[in-house]
Amino acid sequence: MATPAGGGAALCGPLLDYKTEKFALTRNRRVGLLHRLLQLAVLGYVLGWVFVVRRGYQDTDAAPRVSVVTKLKGVSVSRPEDARRRLWDAADFSRPPQGENVLFLVTNFIVTDRQVQGTCPESPSVLDGICMEDVDCSVGNPVVHGNGIKTGRCVMFNSTHSTCEIFGWCPVENDTLPRKPLLAEAENFTLFIKNTVNFTKFNFSKGNTLQTNDPTYFKTCMYDPFFSPSCPVFRIRDMVEAAGETFGALALMGGSISVRIEWDCDLDWPAAHCQPRYSFILLDRRYNFRTASYYWDSKRQHYRSLLKLYGIRFDISVHGQAGKFGIIPAAVSFGTGIAFLGTATIICDMVLLYLDAKADLYWKEKFEEAKPPKGKKAAAAEAQRAGQDLGDAQQCALE
Question: Which domain holds residue 262?
Fold first, then answer.
């Protein structure tokens, strides 16, 4: 029964051993150089990246409450070949109404005037509307991507095309796009963007407008990242070019631009250092939608004017974070740096004990077994054995 107990003790003994720290001076220049380089790398990471770049000593608020107000200004006159001269102002070329963080600026359009509900030939540009005879126009079926419901008749649209007759708004929509944008003057329109952020965690609020008593400032200033960064008035052409496109190319078929406002505020500095950064990203090179205005003539006939509007959609988004010194994050970052410094010693120990040519020597110098003191009986028995060994040695010498 002694063997299992002894085997269990031998198995569990190393698991219950405790190793204390022992320092051994090793004159190994390569490992010493590695140790210093690792320490410098850790210090550079902690001081440079954690504390300076990431500001790890600060408490942060990355979810501010934001407010965005927009106002578009400008006047343009369209001169389409197939319509009367028309004046466009902010109420016409801005969709939806002013004040939203999503804004559409009309730069081109197609007019289909005086439409009335009735029957007429479908447009030959609609593939599902082309026919050769009446059987190609099933009664009651809508024209796929078309303008109405088929009546069952195949009629002549013009001298070269036959299309299905439809019940819908007639005449069908005009799809002839002007070669140049009709509202080319829109490149000089201005967009006023008023933005306010509130970091509730620090009870801090800041706006992107300059605090001034001059009532004419916002009517005369224009945003410039270097000379006028506090002016929230942007020229449309400048915004399009900042997104990497020319206004003329984008105005013809429309497009979409993302306006991103970023706040990165270090509240350990005065509030004047907290300023927004603007960036403009082109999202799409085509954008349009349709709208109509309805009216009745003197004979109570119901008409509508259909507008297919092309233009630039501006999507305004606000992102931000604020930081301020805090005891807890500073202590956590400092403790993390101390722990990283300890890893340099661990790595160098691993190199000495497992990779160096004199690893056996380092093992013997670094690890030493500390034996507990023996009891009185064990000490007497050991002394008796030592005396007996000495007597035996003397007897052998006499012989």
Answer: 66-111+183-296+308-323
Parts of the chain with a pLDDT under 70: 1-14, 18-24, 79-85, 93, 95-100, 364-399
Q: Which of 199, 210, 203 is nearest to 263 (CA)?
A: 199
Query: Is 108 one of the annotated binding-site residues?
Result: no
Please report, for the domain that includes residue 271, its CATH number.
Answer: 2.60.490.10
Whether residues 71 and 189 fall in one domain: yes
For residue 148, the 8-state DSSP code is E
- CB count within 10 Å of CB 169 equals 19
Residue 289 is assigned to a ligand binding site: yes
At residue 1, the pLDDT reads 46
Q: Are 189 and 70 in contact (CB under 8 A)?
A: no
191 in any annotated domain: yes
Same-domain pairing of 86 and 204: yes
Q: Residues 13-28: pLDDT tens digits?
A: 667 776 666 666 777 7
73 is in an annotated binding site: yes
Give Cα separations from 104 to 26, 98, 184 (angstroms): 73, 10, 15
Q: Is 22 annotated as a binding residue?
A: no
Contact 108, 142 (CB under 8 A): no
The pTM (predicted TM-score) of the whole model is 0.72
Q: Residue with structure tokens 């954008």? A: 287
Q: Is residue 127 part of a domain?
A: no
**C-alpha to C-alpha distance for 48 and 168, rounded to whole angstroms:** 69
Q: What is the pLDDT of residue 353?
A: 77
Tokens 């447009």, located at residue: 123
* pLDDT of 392: 55
290 is in an annotated binding site: yes
pLDDT of the residue at 211: 82
* Residues 195, 86 share a domain: yes
Both tokens of 234, joined, read 């942007």
Same-domain check for residues 34 and 76 = no
pLDDT in tens, 185-197: 888 999 999 999 9
Same domain? 95 vs 29: no
194 is in an annotated binding site: no
Neighbours of 222 (CB within 10 A): 12
Side-chain half-sphere CA neighbours of 301 within 13 A:
10
Q: Would residue 229 count as lying in a domain?
A: yes
